């Protein structure tokens, strides 16, 4: 089976690493000449809206998926005329737009922070008066890793902020006094079978994920699965979907979904019976889903800007290095490490050893 992937970054690369043992081949469509996934398959060098190259891709593969939500939903809709594409264009359309996403949560009875659609500075002023400060203004599409957003703490922060973010449609969200950030990695097959990985505790710095630790018997696991299940059913979703939550007052409030394999699920490669990457491919290819059970205690640490010396990373007991083959650049995810242990105390010591190697 040959899989087409829209996007050729590290997520596409890790999909190919998971699919190759299953006898799958890959082709990536990406406008970057140095797309890091290209080493693991064919590389169609083209923009995501290039219909000529999209047709070439569709004619050469059995099905198509995508590795990130910056892909236009129109691209997926166009491809769907010629070849199966999972997840669907409708799922992508909703997941990539924060207003559509939050509105869906509200319709499904899933708690969220207060939010408002912002189309102008006047809209922003009115929303701030209603929701209050602090709050965060985010572009409705394309923002990630802290980009495309601004925290508003004082009235002075509000002035001219709509223009500062490019005068594009935005979403204002009220702050919530959360006690933790968690994410749930889910996978849904073509026939509707659904499986869930354990909730993951996440630590961010400047909007970028730094550390994820898979939980054991999290008290909110069932609630997270309930909320995620509503979304998966609503979207008739196929593939892996990540759902990020805030822990608030003993419950959960929805932050956002990602219609793809997710950074906070990287631990599953060594820490679960079947990784998120393999399970995504199983789902979209119509194959039986794999077990999402944990294998011991697991954590993932991102390497931002540069990867520490390889010999030092792999010297840490049961530490697994994933180098993306990308040029080092400040603020860029260029690799990660997963660590695994039989008990949490040992895992915490391993995490600290890896953290000591990270310069930024």
From TrEMBL:
Its EC number is 6.3.4.18. Residues 102-285 form the ATP-grasp domain. GO terms for biological process: 'de novo' IMP biosynthetic process. Pathway: Purine metabolism; IMP biosynthesis via de novo pathway; 5-amino-1-(5-phospho-D-ribosyl)imidazole-4-carboxylate from 5-amino-1-(5-phospho-D-ribosyl)imidazole (N5-CAIR route): step 1/2. One of its GO terms (cellular component) is cytosol. It comes from the Bacteria. ATP binds at residues 98, 138, 143-149, 173-176, 181, 204, 255-256. It is an enzyme of class 6 (ligase). It catalyses: 5-amino-1-(5-phospho-beta-D-ribosyl)imidazole + hydrogencarbonate + ATP = 5-carboxyamino-1-(5-phospho-D-ribosyl)imidazole + ADP + phosphate + 2 H(+). InterPro entries: ATP-grasp, ATP-grasp_carboxylate-amine, ATP_grasp_subdomain_1, PreATP-grasp_dom_sf, PurK, PurK_C, PurT/PurK_preATP-grasp, Rudment_hybrid_motif. Keywords: ATP-binding, Ligase, Nucleotide-binding, Purine biosynthesis. GO terms for molecular function: 5-(carboxyamino)imidazole ribonucleotide synthase activity; ATP binding; metal ion binding; phosphoribosylaminoimidazole carboxylase activity. Catalyzes the ATP-dependent conversion of 5-aminoimidazole ribonucleotide (AIR) and HCO(3)(-) to N5-carboxyaminoimidazole ribonucleotide (N5-CAIR). Catalyzes the ATP-dependent conversion of 5-aminoimidazole ribonucleotide (AIR) and HCO(3)- to N5-carboxyaminoimidazole ribonucleotide (N5-CAIR). Belongs to the PurK/PurT family. PANTHER family: PHOSPHORIBOSYLAMINOIMIDAZOLE CARBOXYLASE (PTHR11609:SF5), PURINE BIOSYNTHESIS PROTEIN 6/7, PUR6/7 (PTHR11609). Homodimer. This is N5-carboxyaminoimidazole ribonucleotide synthase. It comes from Pseudomonas graminis. The lineage of its organism: Bacteria, Pseudomonadati, Pseudomonadota, Gammaproteobacteria, Pseudomonadales. The gene is purK.
């Amino acid at each position: 089976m040959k899989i087409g992937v829209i996007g050729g970054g590290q997520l596409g690369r890790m999909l190919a690493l998971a699919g190759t043992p299953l006898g799958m081949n890959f082709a990536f469509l990406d406008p970057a000449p140095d797309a890091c996934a290209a080493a693991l398959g064919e590389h169609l060098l083209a923009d995501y809206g290039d219909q000529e190259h999209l047709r070439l891709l569709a004619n050469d593969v059995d099905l198509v998926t995508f590795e990130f939500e910056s892909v236009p939903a129109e691209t997926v809709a166009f491809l769907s005329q010629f070849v199966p594409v999972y997840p669907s264009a409708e799922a992508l359309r909703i997941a990539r737009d924060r207003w559509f996403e939050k509105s869906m949560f509200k319709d499904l009875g899933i708690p969220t922070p207060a939010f408002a659609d912002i189309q102008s500075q006047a809209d922003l002023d009115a929303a701030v008066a209603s929701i209050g400060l602090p709050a965060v203004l985010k572009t409705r599409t394309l923002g990630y890793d802290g980009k495309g957003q601004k925290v508003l703490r004082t009235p002075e922060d509000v002035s001219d902020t709509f223009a500062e973010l490019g005068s594009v449609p935005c979403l204002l969200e009220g702050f919530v006094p959360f006690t933790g950030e968690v994410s749930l990695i889910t996978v849904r097959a073509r026939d509707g079978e659904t499986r869930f990985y354990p909730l993951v505790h996440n630590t961010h710095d400047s909007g970028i994920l730094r550390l994820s630790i898979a939980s054991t018997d999290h008290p909110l696991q069932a609630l997270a699965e309930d909320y995620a299940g509503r979304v998966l059913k609503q979207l008739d979703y196929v593939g892996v979907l990540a759902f990020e939550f805030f822990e608030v007052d003993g419950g959960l409030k929805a932050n956002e979904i990602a219609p793809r394999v997710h950074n906070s699920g990287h631990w599953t490669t060594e820490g679960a019976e079947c990784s998120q990457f393999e399970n995504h491919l199983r789902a979209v290819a119509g194959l039986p889903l794999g077990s999402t059970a944990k294998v011991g205690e697991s954590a993932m640490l991102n390497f931002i800007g540069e990867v520490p010396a390889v010999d030092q990373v792999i010297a840490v007991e049961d530490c697994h290095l994933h180098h993306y083959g990308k040029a080092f650049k400040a603020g860029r995810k260029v690799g990660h490490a997963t660590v695994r242990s039989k008990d949490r105390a040992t895992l915490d010591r391993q995490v600290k050893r890896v953290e000591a190697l990270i310069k930024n």
